[in-house]
Design goal:
By secondary structure, the chain is an alpha+beta fold. The chain has 5 domains: about 5-70 and about 325-415, Nucleic acid-binding proteins (OB fold (Dihydrolipoamide Acetyltransferase, E2P)); about 80-325, D-amino Acid Aminotransferase, Chain A, domain 1; about 450-530, DNA polymerase, domain 1 (Orthogonal Bundle); about 535-620, Orthogonal Bundle (DNA polymerase, domain 1); about 635-700, BRCT domain (Rossmann fold). It is built from 25 helices and 24 strands. A hairpin with a 6-residue loop joins β15 (about 395-400) and β16 (about 405-410). The chain is globular and about 70 Å long.
């Protein structure tokens, strides 16, 4: 599936591929941002997100509520207090070739109605491969430092940031409130010296400078951070009590005057040709720099234009990262292992003879699915010129800065004579149940369900994950042990641990690694999570195709756990008002809806959920509103041609006012804004008696908001 060109996907295959991409990208985000231990390369991650975006562009109706396009980073890790960013720390859209940058320039001009021949200025700067950091200064004094986290909430690393020489504790002439943003990194010589010292002392060595910098900044003991040679480049800002300048270039110059290190390869450019020339200049110096970069960042220079362009859900419209290409290496494939996930998916993993790719030793790679191993796509068309992958083969792998690569090619001239075609298992390696592949699905899945220990354990791990119940002291390792010992077999058992194992012959405090205090702390932590939001509850159930964003949309739609479950029961036959109501939720399609009602109406699953609900106090969810907004809480649809603002600008403004913007008209629609050329949507709105405004009426409605 992964190697089928996007233009060759049909709708069914596209749904399956979007589900696969959402799953692996979410796991990759958590590994990169929470654990400083990435399991796929930057290049592979970028390729996955690029493929996801291309499929969404071709099949916009299939975009998932948990789409990776709408997610920034990952939730903050445990161990640090949390900081809510006054101004969100978003990620950047990526470009991978000259055509992407040319299109970026065209998009900017279309949005702002700037002619192609008119001058448009940008800044171009190296994209540092480090850890994003925000520094808050009040009256010139450093008062807080925070990592990006999930873009909204980061980790408080103030004590650690104060140990970095490039970060001033006091600055002169700055606005009363100033948040300076930039990248913490480690130079190549310092990285080599640190790893040599760590090896000599028998400590942990790091795979690359980025991991070393992130791991050093996120130490709970600031003295360890102080001993690590960290550096900081400033390149942006967040909250401000007064503007730094009216241009990006001028603002960066002000940061330099305040005493921050700014990158001397930053240039002011005019138009996309100038940007591409600077890209080549920076790329040619990449090997001689003393720090890692993985691309060049372009930003519209005029801050007024930046403000007009605004933001998408996770990225600014006025900036893009032009990424460098991936790196390649050859190595021997020593084994193929099968891993079973919580949805029963059988995922093949290549075990490689360790090889250094771009300065990092890697030993694992994804093999995607059985078709990929066989050298074909799920329709039988050849990939890699039909070359299959066998144990013992020499394979070409690629990566661009992290750990697990992708197998790109096979060298048949080095294939051992005894190498045999790989036979993909048709039974689950964990429970020996049949592993079936449904029509249109690229993945073979175990049919064992709850009797499959891999699925049961993975579902429980998901249940206690940070975005779900997030129970302090109960992580993946504890779940595995409690499940193996028969202490927990389902989610409800977690909330019965105190009554079952706080006294009597079997007590948690008597287990190896536990004591009375730690056992009571766990029981207390579990009790604290008996009060949970409906959003987290839905996500915690681990229903296939239902991610965090979808869980939130579903929770807002139904409001309470009782209403949600009653609606699923009513929609069980996938007909009638309850089913139509489920499908009316923005972003919920038939695949997700089917998965929801199937999971929640299966007797065994439902019994598990009912038992869980007896232990919980599930909090209802209310839709957010914008105070004083005339469209807060309403569903708005735009159709036809807008003449005074672009469709994108109108949608963004409506969402800022608390409205939900939908792409289709239904009985749930509150308002249709119809420009010239409005067709079927306007007719349907008239049939349904939905309030309709032209563009002038819309602007008058929201005037002053």
């Amino acid at each position: 599936m992964a190697d089928i060109p996007v233009e060759a996907l049909d709708q069914s295959a596209a749904r399956a591929e979007l589900a696969r991409l959402a799953d692996i990208i979410a796991k990759a985000n958590a590994a990169y941002h929470q654990s400083d231990d990435p399991f796929i390369s930057d290049a592979e991650f970028d390729a996955l997100k690029q493929r996801n975006a291309a499929i969404e562009a071709r099949f916009p109706a299939l975009k998932r509520p948990d789409s990776p396009s709408d997610i920034v980073g990952a939730t903050p890790a445990e161990g640090f207090s949390k900081v809510t960013h006054e101004v969100a720390m978003l990620s950047l859209a990526n470009g991978f070739d000259d055509a992407d940058i040319e299109e970026f320039d065209r998009r900017i001009r279309r949005y702002l109605n700037i002619a192609v021949e008119a001058p448009l200025h940008y800044t171009a700067e190296p994209k540092i491969d480090g850890l994003s950091l925000s520094l808050r200064y009040e009256k010139g004094a450093l008062v807080q430092a925070a990592t990006r986290g999930d873009g909204t909430t980061g980790e408080n690393v103030t004590a650690n940031a104060r140990t970095i020489a490039d970060i001033p504790h006091q600055i002169q002439g700055a606005p009363e409130i100033l948040e300076v943003r930039g990248e913490v990194y480690m130079s190549h010589p310092d990285f080599e010296a640190l790893n040599a010292c760590q090896a000599e002392l028998g400590g942990k060595t790091f795979a690359n400078p980025r991991n070393a910098a992130a791991g050093s900044l996120r130490q709970l003991n600031p003295d360890i951070t102080r001993a690590r040679p960290l550096r900081f480049f400033a390149y942006a800002w967040g909250a401000l009590s007064a503007p730094l300048s009216d241009t990006q270039w001028g603002a960066i110059k002000r940061l330099s005057e305040f005493g921050f290190a700014t990158n001397d390869l930053t240039r002011l450019c005019t138009g996309q040709k100038d940007l591409l020339a600077q890209y080549k200049t920076i790329e040619s110096q990449r090997a001689t720099l003393t720090y890692d970069i993985d691309g060049v960042v372009y930003k519209v220079n005029d801050l007024g234009l930046q403000d007009r362009l605004g933001f998408r859900s996770t990225t600014p419209r006025w900036a893009i990262a032009h990424k460098f290409p991936a790196e390649l290496a050859w190595t021997r494939l020593e084994a193929i292992d099968i891993q079973v996930g919580r949805t029963g998916a059988l995922s093949p993993v290549a075990r490689l003879h360790p090889v250094t790719v771009g300065g990092v030793v890697v030993s694992n790679a994804t093999l995607h699915n059985e078709d990929y191993i066989a050298g074909r796509d799920n329709k039988g068309a050849q990939i890699r010129a039909g070359k299959d992958i066998r144990v013992g083969d020499w394979v070409q792998v690629y990566r661009a800065g992290d750990v697990i690569p992708k197998v790109a090619d096979v060298d048949l001239s080095k294939r051992p004579e005894a190498a045999q075609p790989y036979v993909f298992p048709v039974t689950c390696p964990e429970c020996q149940s049949d592993a079936l592949r449904e029509p249109g699905d690229a993945i073979r899945r175990c049919t064992g369900g709850l009797i499959c220990p891999a699925q049961a354990v993975e579902k429980l791990k998901h249940f206690v994950s940070r975005a779900a119940f997030d129970i302090e002291g109960l992580g993946a390792k504890q779940v595995e042990q409690f499940y193996a010992d028969g202490w927990i077999t389902g989610p409800a058992d977690i909330f019965r641990l105190r009554e079952r194992y706080s006294d009597g012959l079997q007590q948690l405090k008597n287990r190896e690694g536990w004591g009375e205090k730690s056992a009571n702390n766990l029981f207390d932590a579990i009790d604290e999570k008996r009060k949970i939001s409906l959003t987290r509850l839905i996500f915690s159930l681990g229903i296939r195709h239902v991610g965090e964003a979808a869980s939130n949309l579903i929770a807002m739609h139904y409001g309470t756990a009782e209403a949600f479950l009653d609606a699923m029961d009513a929609a069980a036959d996938q007909t009638g008002p309850a089913w139509e109501s489920l499908l009316s939720i923005d972003g919920v399609g038939e695949v997700m809806a089917t998965s929801l009602v199937h999971s929640l109406t299966q007797p065994s699953e439902r019994a598990s959920i009912d038992a869980l609900l007896q232990q919980l106090n599930v909090q209802p969810v209310a839709r957010p509103t914008a105070e004083g907004s005339p469209v807060a809480g309403q569903t708005v649809v735009f159709t036809g041609t807008l003449e005074k603002m672009t469709r994108a600008e109108a949608k963004a403004r409506a969402e800022r006012l608390g409205a939900k913007v939908s792409g289709s008209v239904s009985a749930k629609t509150d308002l249709l804004v119809a420009g010239p050329g409005a067709g079927s949507k306007a007719r349907k709105a008239a049939e349904l008696g939905i309030r309709t405004l032209d563009e002038d009426g819309w602007l008058a409605l929201i005037e002053g908001q």
